[in-house]
């Protein structure tokens, strides 16, 4: 770009440096003069739209970072606007969406159940003012979450009433506080479980003011064991489904139906949130069956096999559930309107991503894996379709293996995919990075493939914003692949099992120890 002289000023005065005879004009010699000004960049329609979405402070920071890259010679001045856009997050939240290719359907570290499209739409519509506690017909206060509670009762016909709190542990805490504070809770030693992240069931229950009365042994507890200690000082008998481990061999456990004649309520914590029997999970307890067997109250999580938002479900006898809902602690544990909206849409809407993943056809998974592997191999990527084994996760269906398919890539892909612009989390097995397709919706296959291409060494110095610009052009992302032969995942919750390890760990830096499912 030609530099025009300013009237009354010499070239030396204009540039601050004397011109060297025979040298090119100063502007041509120093491309940094072409770096756009901050105010000009903020008027770029793309960055202006980002200000509306993310706020001016975050956009200005990205602009300045891009300008610094140009000043250091890392990018051309003309690349500053796109680089600034690439540096911006997709949303104002620090949470980043990821593709769950671990083979764990309900991955706790990844937020457990992904919401259905219907639930996401319901959350968006509920974000503004709603009639969450208002009867529009009469203009007077109405019961909070009434339509969601009605939908929950419709799905569990044996329940006389339902209540919702903020998570599964809160449901059990509310039941213990309202029904057994200052009294005993009778529970089998074999069901005194750790529920995750270092929290243990005994500690949780004792914190409510109740006393625990353990009966039986780790591997065998009979109805007679419960009957021997149940009396006037018993608040309730508790049965807990040990959903994240299995005890096999010389074992025995009392059934709910065996305990209903003890003269005290029987509370059953089924954990995983299965509302009715499921053919793929014949040993997993469900709420409707437990209530029909005589349970007074059933507690469960909403973000596991139900496939909904994080919440705790209480279902059972109308008098007891109403008492729980009116307890002072219930006010501290209540859910917001967004959770209620997502829960109702989950209960009344189409099958959830969790339900679809649970019933996915292994042949279709193998076909997807083969198709993806063929396309990526054509791009020169070391990839093959392999057989895999997925798990439910989320503390549900321990020991259940779901036949699946995966893309097998060199181990270094794990860290690159995980830290990419569109993160993909897989797992490591036998020195390879596996991207299991069970929990990857088919509509994300292109998105997954693009992420793998971007992570490939052949991508060279491609900008980390390639995936974002692909999204902006309306492209979606790919998933994972499979074919018989690979060692089963066996891993639950991103933790090790049967030789597989969480792809969040690399050879150079191993992550935290993982527990076996």
Provide key terms for this protein.
517 residues, alpha/beta, seven-stranded mixed beta sheet, six-stranded mixed beta sheet, 21 helices, disordered C terminus
Explain what the structure shows.
- The strands form five sheets. A seven-stranded mixed β-sheet has the order 5-13-12-11-10-6-9, sandwiched between helices. Strands 2-14-15-18-17-19 form a six-stranded mixed β-sheet. Strands 1-16 form a two-stranded parallel ribbon.
- The chain has 517 residues and is an alpha/beta fold.
- It starts with 10 loop residues before the first helix and ends in a 15-residue tail after the last strand.
- 44% of the residues are buried.
- Helix 5 (56-71) packs across helix 6, helix 7 runs antiparallel to helix 16 and helix 18 (362-377) runs parallel beside helix 20 (445-455).
- The protein has helices at residues 11-15, 26-29, 38-42, 45-54, 56-71, 80-87, 117-126, 146-155, 168-180, 201-206, 223-229, 256-259, 287-292, 318-326, 328-332, 337-348, 353-358, 362-377, 413-418, 445-455, 466-472; strands at 99-100, 104-106, 134-135, 140-141, 161-165, 184-188, 194-196, 199-200, 211-215, 234-240, 266-271, 297-301, 312-316, 384-393, 402-410, 424-425, 427-429, 432-436, 500-502.
């Amino acid at each position: 770009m030609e530099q025009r002289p300013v009237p009354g000023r010499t070239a030396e005065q204009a540039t601050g440096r004397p011109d060297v005879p025979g040298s090119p004009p100063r502007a041509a010699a120093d491309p940094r003069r072409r770096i756009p000004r901050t105010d000009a960049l903020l008027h770029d329609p793309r960055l202006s739209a980002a200000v509306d979405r993310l706020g001016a402070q975050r956009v200005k920071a990205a602009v300045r970072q891009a300008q610094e890259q140009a000043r250091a010679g890392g990018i051309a001045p003309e690349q500053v606007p796109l680089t600034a856009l690439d540096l911006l997050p997709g949303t104002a939240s620090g949470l980043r969406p990821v593709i769950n290719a671990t083979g764990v359907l309900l991955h706790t570290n990844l937020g457990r159940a992904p919401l259905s499209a219907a639930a996401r739409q319901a959350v968006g519509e509920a974000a503004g003012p709603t009639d969450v506690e208002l009867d529009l017909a009469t203009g007077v206060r109405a019961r909070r979450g009434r339509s969601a509670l009605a939908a929950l009762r419709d799905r569990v016909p044996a329940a006389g009433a339902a209540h919702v709190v903020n998570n599964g542990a809160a449901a059990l805490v509310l039941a213990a506080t309202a029904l057994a504070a200052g009294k005993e809770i009778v529970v089998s030693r074999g069901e005194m479980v750790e529920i995750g992240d270092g929290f243990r069931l005994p500690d949780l229950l004792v914190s409510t003011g109740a006393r625990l009365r353990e009966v039986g042994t780790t591997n065998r507890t009979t109805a007679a064991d419960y009957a021997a200690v149940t009396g006037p000082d018993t608040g309730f008998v508790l049965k807990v489904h040990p959903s994240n481990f299995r005890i096999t061999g010389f074992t025995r456990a009392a059934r709910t139906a065996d305990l209903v004649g003890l003269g005290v309520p029987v509370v059953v914590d089924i954990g995983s949130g299965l509302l009715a029997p499921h053919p793929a999970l014949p040993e997993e307890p469900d709420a409707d069956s437990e209530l029909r067997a005589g349970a007074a109250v059933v507690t469960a999580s909403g973000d596991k096999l139900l496939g909904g938002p994080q919440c705790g479900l209480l279902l059972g006898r109308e008098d007891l559930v109403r008492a729980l809902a009116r307890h002072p602690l219930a006010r501290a544990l209540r859910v917001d309107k967004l959770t209620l909206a997502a829960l109702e849409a989950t209960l009344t809407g189409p099958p959830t991503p969790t339900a679809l993943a649970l019933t996915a056809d292994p042949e279709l998974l193998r076909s997807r894996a083969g198709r993806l592997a063929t396309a990526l191999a054509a791009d020169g990527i070391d990839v093959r379709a392999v057989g895999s084994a997925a798990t439910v996760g989320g503390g549900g269906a321990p020991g259940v293996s779901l036949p699946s398919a995966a893309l097998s890539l060199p181990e270094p892909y794990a860290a690159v995919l995980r830290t990419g612009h569109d993160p993909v989390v897989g797992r490591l097995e036998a020195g390879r990075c596996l991207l299991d397709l069970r929990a990857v919706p088919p509509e994300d296959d292109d998105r997954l493939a693009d992420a793998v291409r971007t992570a490939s060494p052949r991508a060279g110095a491609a900008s980390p914003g390639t995936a974002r610009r692909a999204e902006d052009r309306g492209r979606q992302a790919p998933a994972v692949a499979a074919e018989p032969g690979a060692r089963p995942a066996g891993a639950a919750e991103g933790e090790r099992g049967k030789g597989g390890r969480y792809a969040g760990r690399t050879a150079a830096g191993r992550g935290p120890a993982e527990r076996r499912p």
